[in-house]
Specification:
Layout lengths: L4 E3 L11 H8 E4 L4 E5 L2 E14 L2 E15 L2 E2 L2 H7 L5 H14 L10 E6 L1 H4 L5 H14 L7 E5 L5 H13 L3 E7 L5 H8 L3 E4 L1 H9 L3 H14 L3 E4 L5 H10 L3 E2 L8 E2 L9 E2 H5 L20
Parallel strand pairs: 5-7, 7-8, 8-9, 9-10, 10-11, 11-12
Antiparallel strand pairs: 1-2, 2-3, 3-4, 4-5, 4-12, 4-13, 5-6, 5-14
């Protein structure tokens, strides 16, 4: 049964309100403090997927990355169906709601010290018009929701104009917030964006990375690229890992941080979060088929 959700006290839905106000008004909270947002017939909920650091033969939980899952009539709906039902003018609203929910539900993970990688589009998350004020508003929100600034890494959204990247990154850093650049490998100026932001972290585009894995010999070029990125003092994240081959290429190339269903699936905010490390050797081992026999008088494993 779906929990009862209550609108926040200042909720007044008005179509002519600024985007930040419509986002704030859409937020709802249940009786145990988990927030969601109403978007037409859908209820948007937050999921978090672990990010692991590659360290000494193990993959150790380092942080999380959030996303939203649309629910309709109490059941998960496909993202394709949800996207098809949304009007083009609602795209910025959905993006803004997603980012706000990721921040506000972080405390519902229940594990202290995990970093949070969250995309940040100041136009969708703030009423301010200046870069400095936008960063200050974010810092104020972090204080309100009790999320330590040093745990947040803001991935500057891809729609932020390149001339705005450096001022935004500087404003965030002044308030103790780290900076990331995402979708690395897409477009023609991704390396320039990373240098303008002086980013702490670069997230490789998952589609671009999968193509690298599929091309013989390309993994060597990836290792050279990552060595150059590391020489500039930046770390590299690969997400969307689904196969052992993808994991092997990422580890061989020297990727620092890894995320994907192969390692651990995303869970709804409020679910029990597994922080146990993963063994690299076991993950990379060939998958063998195990046959189990069930006799009429025997145990499931075939022993009597």
């Amino acid at each position: 049964m779906e929990r009862i959700l209550h609108r926040r006290e200042d909720c007044r839905v008005m179509s002519d309100q600024p985007l930040w106000k419509r986002i704030d008004d859409a937020l709802m909270v249940d009786e145990i403090g988990i927030e969601a947002a109403r978007c037409g017939p859908y209820l948007l909920k937050t999921v978090y997927q672990p990010i692991f650091r590659n360290r000494s033969g193990q993959l150790v939980p380092w942080g999380v990355r959030g996303d939203i899952v649309p629910y309709r009539n109490g059941r998960p709906a496909s993202c394709k169906t949800f996207a098809a039902d949304m009007l083009p003018r609602q795209a910025a609203f959905v993006e803004g709601v997603s980012r706000m929910l990721q921040l506000r539900n972080y405390r519902n993970i229940g594990i202290a010290g995990l970093a949070l990688l969250a995309s940040f589009d100041p136009a969708a998350a703030s009423r301010a018009t200046t870069t400095s004020r936008q960063a200050s508003n974010l810092a104020d929100l972090l204080e309100e929701i009790e999320l330590p600034r040093e745990l947040l890494i803001c991935e500057i959204a891809e729609n932020v104009k390149i001339e705005s990247v450096r001022p935004l990154a500087v404003a965030l850093r002044r308030r103790g917030i780290r900076v990331a650049i995402g979708q690395f490998g897409v477009g023609t100026r991704f390396l320039e964006r990373a240098r303008l932001a002086d980013s702490d972290l670069i997230r490789l585009d998952s589609g671009w990375f999968r193509r690298i894995v599929e091309v013989p010999g390309a993994s060597g070029l990836l290792a050279s690229l990552l060595a150059a990125i590391h020489a500039e003092g930046r770390e590299v994240l690969v997400d969307g890992l689904e196969t052992v081959d993808q994991l092997r290429v990422a580890l061989d190339a020297g990727v620092d941080l890894l995320q994907g269903d192969l390692l651990r699936p995303a869970k709804l905010a409020g679910a029990i979060f597994d922080t146990s490390p993963l063994n690299r050797k076991a993950l990379l081992a060939p998958r063998s088929k195990i046959l189990r026999f069930t006799g009429s008088r025997g145990r499931k494993d075939g022993r009597r």
